[in-house]
Amino acid sequence: MAERGKEDVIDLRKVAKKIWLRKKLFFKVLPVVFVVSCVYIVLIPRYYTCSVMLAPEVENPSGSGVLGSLASSFGVNLSQGMTTDAISPMLYPDLMGSMDFMVSLFDVGVTNEEGDLSTNYYDYIRYHQQKSVWSLPMSWVAKLLSLFAKEDGYKGEGKVNPFRLTKEQKDVIELMGDKIQCSVDKKTDVITVTVKDQDPLICACMADTVSARLQKFITAYRTNKARVDMEYYEKLTEEAKADYEEALRLYGRLVDANLNVVRKAAELKQTDLENEMQLKYNTYSALNTQFQAAKAKVQERTPAFTTLQCATVPIKPAGPKRMLFVLGMLLLGSVGVAVYILKDDFLGRTEK
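RESULT FIELD:
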């Protein structure tokens, strides 16, 4: 048993000596790996990233302050399960990935850094993306196959139906999903919208646009019920005002017609119109109060977003990391050569 244990021990000095004796193999393989990795990574287009950070206003129930603070220190947000909003900040990434939200970005106008391209975001993604040389064969095959398909893409005109998209529109939405990302910090509810693009100006513009569209959607959702109530009371108020003005006009006409007439019938008619006018005024006044309260409710329900980090045109590209890629390939090549040198030892030990 002791001899078998000794055989299982790897002598690192012997391994290093065997690798050193065949060090010329490294000088043959690593330069080739360096050149190939450099050529490969240089031909991949560079991209930029821009991030916008928002802190939304979240309704927290009363009485959860101390318990919520204690839970947040452990990474648990109790307000998510107790808020009255159906769409909490944790659902914002799913919202941004929806078809309706992506389709709404098709008609966003973009202009590149050089200023020689001005189009909508759909056409930019579809026709103006730089591709690596390695993806050209697949692109040629896809283009050849598209010749036999019916051309039915979005040209920046008309309205797109998210319920029934064409193949081109779905492909563009998939590319947009790779470029536009949204994440939410579970502890602080801070929303981070990140846009990746090959042009720095378009990258910053789309990050700003996406964050603005997200705020607009959340505002529309949270104020929807209050806005419906406001519009309803506004309609009733206008109708009540018209009825009151009509009653006021009839009362004034009767008073003018019987100014110097002393008759009981005229007096009773005047009293009747006066009472009717007062009732219509009371109705109008009550509805106007409700209308003003509904307007205040809309303002109360309108959420506030604090921009912690605004969109800024990036100066340096975010990727691909060419130096790290080359170093990683060199390290991988060195490991491969070492394994090739020691393969006989590994195979012999496995047979034993």
